Amino acid sequence: MTGLTNLNAILATLDPVLGESPYVFASLKNDTTVDVTSLDPLFTFKEEEGTTVIVHQDVADKMSLEYLVVFNQITLKVHLSLEAIGLTASIATELTKHQISCNVVAGYYHDHIFVPTAKSQQALEALKELQRYSDIQLKNLY
């Protein structure tokens, strides 16, 4: 199944869903003895400085991993193409209007937005409003 590439169509069908689990971003040094798979990470990314992991907060606490902020995950249920242009910029722009930071992770089928837990409900409402506005705009095009 091919994902959407038209930004207007993507924004009009975002379908954001807020997860309840608290997640954190942590970095494991290259010489770590921690078995990454034991952390059951939601996401890993190898960087020059170490391996970034997104894990449940309780796992990070149990393993004494350092982190700075606790996030909630908002999954955009719209199925978009990895070649879609403009979604990350649109999301960041909308959340910036509400003074909400975000970290975007692209999965094969969906994008996932990590927002500070304290502002997660506000972020969800902002994304739903963006979807409503975009849906009206899209209908006016046709």
From TrEMBL:
InterPro entries named in the record: ACT-like_dom_sf, CASTOR_ACT_dom, DUF2241
Protein name: DUF2241 domain-containing protein
Residue intervals of the DUF2241 domain: 2-71
PANTHER family per the UniProt record, alphabetical: BLR5128 PROTEIN
Organism whose genome encodes this protein: Scheffersomyces spartinae
Stored SUPFAM superfamilies: ACT-like
Domain CASTOR ACT: 72-129
GO biological process entries: amino acid metabolic process; carboxylic acid biosynthetic process
Classification via Pfam families: ACT_3, ACT_7
